[in-house]
Amino acid sequence: MKIDIQSRDVFYVSDGTAITCETIGHVVLGQFPFNANEKTFPFVESKEKLEDLLREIEISFIKNGVKPLVFFSMVITELKEALLQSNCYGYDILGSLVQQVETDIQIAPVPQLQRSRSVSKDSDTYFDRIAAIEYTLAHDDGVTLKGLEKADIILLGVSRSGKTPTSLYMAMQFGLRVVNYPFIDDDLSRLRLLPEFEIHRHKLFGLTIDPQRLTEIRQNRLAGSDYASNEQCLHELQTVEALFRREAIPYINTSSLSVEEISTRVLEKAGLRRRLL
Amino acid sequence: MKIDIQSRDVFYVSDGTAITCETIGHVVLGQFPFNANEKTFPFVESKEKLEDLLREIEISFIKNGVKPLVFFSMVITELKEALLQSNCYGYDILGSLVQQVETDIQIAPVPQLQRSRSVSKDSDTYFDRIAAIEYTLAHDDGVTLKGLEKADIILLGVSRSGKTPTSLYMAMQFGLRVVNYPFIDDDLSRLRLLPEFEIHRHKLFGLTIDPQRLTEIRQNRLAGSDYASNEQCLHELQTVEALFRREAIPYINTSSLSVEEISTRVLEKAGLRRRLL
What we know:
The structure is a homodimer. By secondary structure, chain A is α/β, with parallel strands linked by helices. Chain A is 44% helix and 16% strand. Chain A contains 10 helices and 8 strands. In chain A, helix 5 runs antiparallel to helix 6 and helix 8 (211-221) packs across helix 9 (230-246). The termini of chain A are far apart. Chains A and B meet through helix 1, strand 3, helix 4, helix 5 and helix 6 of A and helix 1, strand 3, helix 4, helix 5 and helix 6 of B. Chains A, B: GO terms for molecular function: ADP binding; ATP binding; phosphotransferase activity, phosphate group as acceptor; protein serine/threonine kinase activity.
């Protein structure tokens, strides 16, 4: 049998959603030069569910001749031990951290099943988050400019500069109420801010992007159109960046950033506190 | 000075967005019975930025008489060491995992700055994610039923059962194209599925919720309305759950679940593979 050491089976296992396991696993594996064949096992809270996983571990080991990597987070000790006795390399993503904290602060942990965010414990937080998502949806893409006084931040930029995904992420992850407004041709020729924005100046934040990257993104959407042409992209960006500078609106370039990175950098530059949900 | 051991300063520090640090920190601290005063320091990539952090650590220690807890993730060794020499309890959220993996698989890591998701490395993934968000936004709340053949899943449920946040989360986190459709009075009296859904039966998934919880959520939105009355909520839910059973549509109760948990459970029950982004 030929063993391809450049490729490994990786399993994410949790008694909760396993989203945290995936996140941590991705960052850890991002440091190593091999391909991961990933599979996720959420809500492993019983022996029955663990049996399914153990079977897959055994199949992977037999098939590949090397142990799969398993990033896990489980509270029930028996399940954890059974997992660690199987033919895998197991990584408890929280275990050592919990131990270290206990040693440092001398307070005993009270183990509970993993819950990414709890609904019942804190209903206000639930409503805040839903309200932020709703507000942000209602104010996407300049649909309405009513209720700007409730906005935490107002994102400005040309079409396809990343406003919508950033707005939704900020609402979902940080519970912020985000307005986003696209500059379209009309605004560009007038090159001025809408009067509605005047009294909310302190909330304005610009997104810009490299012309080349914008062209690529627009071509992906409407190949061959004027809208996606190099000239149009360059013109729009130059006009809008001049506006940002003239009006002293802070802005960042989103070209090489993920949605998470854009959101976090905007928050930081705007001096907004994250509402940890 | 009175020391309140039930409350601690907690800092999240990263050379990236620090979102992973926050997530891990929350889960770890969720196991301990004390209150955390949290603050996040993203993009700590330079000595200057580290100095700001070290100052805050010192202030916290002097003010509280106990060391703050610092969950961190940083690649640059000098920054890491300087942090660990300050008056804090430091927890490297990745360090020990990377070491363990290295030992197990005998491949040396290639450290790189933390990036939650990379844009430039993998442009297809970027476009997939944006396309999923756009599709999902366009198909929110029954706005259109065109293009259902491209949907990964179609969520059904009464108003306020959690469809919109769940749809957006699935798009954002897992890159899935989600349609969601609310049952409104018309459908309820007819109590049948729209013909448009017939050929997509295998994609249908129901969300339901306890009558009491639904009443609470609707009261929060429109207090005192018929819409938010106990009777109306109970009637809608009974009707819709009967439909789910009659039509053999799988469904889950969202009452005590977070958006992350709903999304993950739906994926699991629907047998959809997560697209890890």
